[in-house]
Design the sequence.
């Protein structure tokens, strides 16, 4: 546990010095302010516009942080050969990966909390805030961004950062298009394409299950089953991706 804590602490220090972090925070803040400006164009829908764009800003900021910073978490250590020094000490490779994940994961949580607090103040000033739905929505953002971080970590143990970013971004876009894939696959006349599309749409993680924005905007009551489904999907895929990352990383030769 001590080895994991040391790796996580060093990872946090590295990320804090990374200019990409501050660029993404600035981007998310600008999007929230943009929502405020656009909301001013509509008096009746001002609160909803601010909330909608603001929640999108939080999601984009956290997910981009997981993808772009997560893509170089492992490769940076491999390229500098510092990974050889780390794993030569009484530290397992699995502890190294878990420490890296926890380090960036904690930064993502902190960024989400900070931007969400700023958004909550904006929403409260210009409309009504459904706090329960708002909190669950941020939980969904965290689950989605941490799942993307798991993907970045998985691809990062055997790919360069550019390919890792490409693969994880693709997975993010596909994950939000699963519902459309399922719909069109179900309508397909070709049985092979229909079976392949439906099978893929059921296996691949549907990232729309982490989206609770409509409940925040319209104040819809939340179904506990939907929240449980999101937690279940995250847990299952997190375990699969983490075990896969450890399995590949244990078999890599860094010399």
Sequence:
């Amino acid at each position: 546990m001590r080895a994991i804590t040391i790796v996580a602490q060093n990872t946090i220090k590295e990320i804090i010095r990374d200019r990409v972090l501050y660029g993404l925070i600035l981007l998310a803040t600008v999007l929230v302010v943009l929502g405020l400006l656009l909301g001013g164009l509509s008096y009746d829908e001002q609160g909803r516009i601010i909330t909608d764009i603001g929640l999108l800003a939080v999601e984009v900021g956290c997910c981009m942080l997981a993808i772009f910073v997560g893509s170089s978490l492992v490769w940076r250590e491999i390229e500098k050969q510092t990974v050889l020094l780390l794993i030569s000490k009484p530290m397992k490779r699995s502890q190294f990966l878990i420490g890296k994940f926890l380090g960036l994961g904690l930064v993502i949580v902190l960024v989400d909390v900070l931007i969400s607090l700023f958004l909550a103040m904006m929403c409260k000033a210009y409309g009504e805030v459904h706090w329960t739905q708002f909190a669950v929505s941020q939980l969904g953002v965290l689950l989605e961004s941490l799942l993307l971080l798991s993907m970045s970590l998985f691809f990062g143990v055997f790919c360069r950062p550019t390919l890792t970013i490409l693969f994880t971004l693709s997975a993010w876009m596909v994950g939000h298009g699963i519902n459309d894939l399922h719909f069109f696959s179900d309508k397909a006349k070709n049985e092979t394409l229909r079976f392949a599309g439906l099978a893929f749409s059921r296996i691949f993680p549907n990232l729309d299950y982490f989206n609770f924005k409509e409940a925040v905007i319209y104040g819809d009551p939340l179904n506990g089953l939907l929240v449980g489904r999101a937690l279940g999907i995250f847990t299952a895929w997190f375990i699969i991706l983490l075990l896969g990352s450890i399995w590949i990383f244990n078999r890599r030769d860094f010399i």
Q: What stands out?
A: The mean pLDDT is 84. The two ends are 27 Å apart (CA to CA). DSSP finds twelve helices and no strands in the chain.
